[in-house]
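User: I've been trying to design a sequence by hand for this structure and keep getting stuck. Would you show me what you'd pick, starting by listing the structure so we're on the same page?

Assistant: Good idea, let's start from the same input. This is the structure you sent:
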């Protein structure tokens, strides 16, 4: 808690984790309650959940392929905004169909649907896209946010988020729902308030993403510049070492050449003097 309170960067990152855990819990539990109301038969419920799992796998695989392109072209901020934006848009549609479904009944009957069935389908889309965005964008963006931090803050910040924020996000949604059920008697009666709480949490999540992006981008640029400097320094040092080595080699060769030249001169002088000495001795 001390680490979370001391660093704004880690605090914004923790807000992302807690907000996702609470939001997905609020949406999933409310959606499954409506799903059981729409498909009371165990066979129909199992069949729908099988189709839901298949669609989730296909959407996740597709988003995994697109996630890298989104990160490369649009940057960290856009990639981190997609998950809360998906939850916000689909959440508004899901809770609107639940709360204001009766006036829409004549319109839904033209399409062969009821407001409850439409809410189930919208809630399924919400869970599919939110989970696929979580695995393909939210998790990579969260791990990338640790990169610009120093080693000490990486260890302490990640430990604080994993120890405090992950359980808080998972249990926070359940605690909110239990409080609402105790206060209003049932989950159906507390649905409007759950929708309002979800709206507040997602807006807080978006604010934390914007704040974290304003801090992450400068730190990421500094990290890239530091890596470039570290890459260029070994090249410069190796070039300097190679230059000094060539210079010493040239000096060695020049000294050897001068030494060879002096020895040749000495040998020539000795050869020229020996005949003169031999002639004098003969005389």
């Amino acid at each position: 808690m001390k680490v979370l309170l001391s660093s704004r960067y880690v605090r914004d990152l923790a807000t992302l984790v807690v907000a996702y855990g609470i939001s997905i819990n609020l949406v999933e539990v409310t959606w499954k309650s409506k799903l059981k109301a729409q498909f009371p038969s165990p066979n129909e419920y199992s069949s729908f959940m099988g189709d839901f799992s298949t669609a989730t796998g296909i959407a996740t695989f597709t988003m995994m392929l697109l996630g890298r392109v989104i990160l490369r072209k649009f940057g960290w901020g856009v990639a981190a905004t997609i998950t809360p934006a998906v939850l916000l848009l689909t959440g508004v549609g899901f809770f609107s169909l639940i709360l204001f479904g009766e006036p829409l009944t004549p319109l839904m009957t033209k399409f062969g649907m009821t407001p409850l069935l439409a809410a189930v389908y919208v809630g399924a889309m919400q869970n599919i896209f939110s989970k696929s965005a979580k695995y393909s964008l939210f998790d990579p963006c969260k791990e990338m946010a640790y990169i610009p931090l120093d080693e000490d803050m990486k260890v302490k910040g990640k430990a604080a988020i994993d120890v405090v924020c992950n359980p808080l996000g998972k249990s926070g949604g359940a605690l909110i729902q239990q409080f609402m059920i105790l206060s209003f008697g049932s989950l159906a009666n507390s649905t409007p308030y759950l929708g309002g709480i979800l709206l507040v949490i997602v807006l807080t999540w978006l604010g934390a993403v914007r704040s974290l992006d304003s801090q992450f981008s400068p730190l990421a640029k500094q990290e890239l510049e530091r890596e470039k400097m570290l890459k260029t320094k070994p090249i410069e040092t190796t070039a300097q070492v190679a230059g000094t080595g060539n210079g010493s080699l040239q000096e060695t060769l020049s000294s050897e050449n001068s030494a060879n030249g002096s020895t040749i001169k000495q040998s020539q002088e000795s050869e020229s003097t020996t005949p003169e000495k031999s002639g004098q001795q003969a005389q």
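That's my pick for every position. To get oriented when you compare it with your attempt: The chain has one domain: 2-229. The two ends are 112 Å apart (CA to CA).
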